[in-house]
Each structure stands twice: as structure tokens, then as C-alpha cells.
Design brief:
Mean pLDDT: 94
Distance between the termini: 26 Å
Number of strands: 3
Number of domains: 1
Strand order of the largest sheet: 2-1-3
CATH topology: Herpes Virus-1
Order of helices and strands: EEHEH
Largest sheet: 3 strands, antiparallel
Length: about 80
């Protein structure tokens, strides 16, 4: 199951589970659209893979399958 990480690993921007602005690679590295399309140039700095928009999780499933809370970057 997807971690649904709460923030961009580069800039720390909040990416809640319903955000359409989150992108992930095949290892679930998570970045915002601005970082993916800008400085990262569509390539994951961790694994060299490409990105896809992260799917959202239906609200009624978040209680049973909550999103991750551990941030990769400080606020």
C-alpha cells in the first residue's frame, strides 16, 4: 500500500493525501509539481526514475488506511 508521504522531499511543501500536486517515482519518493517540473527536470534525484502523479486516497479509506505522518524535510 502506498505511504502517501506528507511532504515534498526537496522543498518540504505539504502534500496531504488528497493533493493533486504530489508526484512519486517507483520507490514512492515524493515531490511537488513545482520541484518535479523545475529543478528536478522530471528525474528522481534518489533513484534516477521518472515521476507519475500520486493517486489520491478516498476520504472514507483514510481512517482505516491513514497517510504517513513522518516528514522528509523540516517545516
Amino acid at each position: 500500500m502506498l505511504d502517501m508521504r506528507p511532504d515534498c522531499e526537496r522543498c518540504g511543501r505539504d502534500l496531504p493525501p488528497d493533493s493533486g500536486d504530489a508526484h512519486i517515482c517507483s520507490f514512492e519518493c515524493t515531490f511537488c509539481t513545482e520541484c518535479v517540473e523545475g529543478p528536478l527536470g522530471g528525474v528522481c534525484p534518489n533513484c534516477g526514475g521518472n515521476f507519475r502523479p500520486r493517486p489520491t486516497r478516498a476520504e472514507h479509506l483514510l481512517e482505516r488506511y491513514p497517510a504517513a505522518t513522518e516528514r522528509k524535510r523540516p517545516r
